[in-house]
Amino acid sequence: MSNLYKALTIAGSDTSGGAGLEADLKTFQEYGVYGMVALTVIVAQNPREEWYHEVNPIPVDLIVKQIITVCEGIGVDAMKTGMLGSAELVHLIAASIDKYKLKNVVIDPVMVCKGVETIMVPEAAAAIKGELVKRADVITPNTIEAAYLADMESIITLEDMKEAAGRIKELGAKNVVIKAGDRIFGEEAIDLLYDGKEFIFNRQPKIIGCYNHGAGCTFSAAVTAGLAKGMSVKEAVENAGKFVGAALKASFKLNEYGGALDHAAWRK
Ligand code: PXL
Known about the structure:
The chain contains 8 helices and 11 strands. By secondary structure, it is of the alpha/beta class.
């Protein structure tokens, strides 16, 4: 490798391969970034119970060991978080960001995913709000997560998105990206990037009939990989939008419960 760029994801494993650290590593690979992992939970889906998602936490002392391996033993150019099972783990990650002076910190405040109503225990969500948002160089909530972080009932208009971004910025995040994805706005998928000065809307035609499981993880991983390679936040976010768009367009069915993104689509 001529230039070695290294990224860490502190995230859960999605056994079905579409989301979580599997999506993150596939994305890092496509960007030419060397990917490393601290595994937080293992999600197994049950085909005998309508793909019910079972979330199995990894003991925190084992997560500590993984973070030491990567942060003390190797070093990282950028990092991201994904599914975090407990407030205790959130405290640990906040302390690790400070201890190792980690740069290019991308927080994907995963609180909900398809297949489970709530995956985040309320204490962990509160800890993310109190401890991780202010340490984020970029935070990438969807509209549900953004409404929670911003103390708003819901986000359904562009003005709501701006209001939420402003409130999340006030919690201390350097840059806020709110992904409206397929949830609102009819024919369009609209993301907003707010850096405290400018509201930049990225509008794309909605991709109809695609499988979007893992799209959020892939987006935040693409931002992380971009930052690891030295892109500006604006550039990394723009690129991540295109990367996910291509992966969504080429997404494919896996079984009767859903499908997956094609992470290699951008180069085809
Ligand atoms: O897409 C959210 C998500 C994140 N991380 C893991 C997951 C999921 C959804 O299934 O399994 C590990």
